[in-house]
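Lecture notes, continued. The same structure-token format from the folding unit now serves as the input rather than the output. Read the line below as a description of shape only.
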């Protein structure tokens, strides 16, 4: 059976080797899976663990279209700090 989801993230540590930051870049689950939100929730729990430790927990460039991940992060207390805008200009 294939993995149903994945998370791309980075953990940052201080000079003493203590984790200071959990930085999420991407978190997805296979489209159409009935357990999609559970997969995303499990991946996010792993990324942002340990939950009892004070860390900077953030995500960057997360697509708004990634509704499952966005919904779970918002319910966990995450909020939008900045948004990116994609702009184009036709060459004439």
């Amino acid at each position: 059976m294939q993995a149903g989801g994945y998370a791309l993230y980075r953990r940052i540590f201080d000079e003493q080797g203590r984790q200071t930051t959990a930085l999420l870049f991407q978190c997805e689950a296979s489209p159409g899976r009935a357990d999609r939100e559970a997969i995303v929730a499990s991946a996010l729990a792993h990324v942002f663990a340990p939950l009892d430790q004070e860390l900077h927990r953030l995500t960057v460039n997360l697509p708004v279209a990634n509704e499952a991940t966005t919904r779970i992060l918002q319910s966990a207390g995450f909020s939008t700090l900045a948004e990116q805008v994609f702009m184009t200009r036709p060459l004439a």
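Point for the exam: The mean pLDDT is 90.
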